[in-house]
């Protein structure tokens, strides 16, 4: 079974700061997902990556397959970035195993 | 709206009652997943379908839980004899299939409260 650990659990930052959220997993994978969940439950897929780095606007995701580690970075953070960020990896037979999430709060 | 839709958004029920939730995936997606999420936790996998076939069920899915996807389109999740511990957000997601994992699209969830 693949275990997914995220850190930190909670993160409060001032608007404009650079933010990093980390994810570690225990078993080799083909791809890793980063998702964003806003209050009220809606989950949005941010990235799916299997190597290197992906960038979308102010969001950057990196993965190191050898070290079984991924990071999500947010540059020039904004209060609207406040959400729970969840890392997920494939489980057996096509499902996803989710981390517990990192609750980010960006203060103006 | 062509996203994943779930109905109802909220359900309040008394312990012991049966409840049924519905999920309509994105129409061209043949994979459909059910997840459960409690406060402060990430989503936990319950079950998933490829077309109408239920391919995997989590140990979390007790005998009181049953899921169907009769025509390979919408899916229902039924909980019989609800317990207070069943209170959670029930999330549905869909994706296309293929050799590699595909991006998941989530519905807004059904929040169940068992009194």
General description of the model:
The complex is a heterodimer of chains A (108) and B (115). Chain A has 108 residues and is mostly beta strands. In chain A, 0% of the residues lie in helices and 58% in strands. In chain A, the strands form two sheets. In chain A, strands 2, 4, 5, 9, 10 and 11 form a six-stranded mixed β-sheet that branches. Chain A has a five-stranded antiparallel β-sheet with strand order 1-3-8-7-6, with no helix packed on it. In chain A, a hairpin with a 4-residue loop joins strand 7 (59-64) and strand 8 (69-74). Chain A is globular. In chain A, 32% of the residues are buried. In chain B, the strands form two sheets. In chain B, strands 2, 4, 5, 6, 9, 10 and 11 form a seven-stranded mixed β-sheet that branches. A four-stranded antiparallel β-sheet of chain B has the order 1-3-8-7, with no helix packed on it. By secondary structure, chain B is mainly beta. In chain B, strand 5 (44-50) and strand 6 (53-57) form a beta hairpin. The N and C termini of chain B lie far apart (33 Å). Classes of the chains: A mainly beta (108), B mainly beta (115). Chain A binds chain B through residues 4, 30-31, 33, 35, 40-45, 48, 86, 88, 90-101, and chain B through 31, 33, 35, 37, 40-45, 48, 50, 55-56, 58, 89, 91, 93, 97, 100-101, 103-106, 108-109, 111.
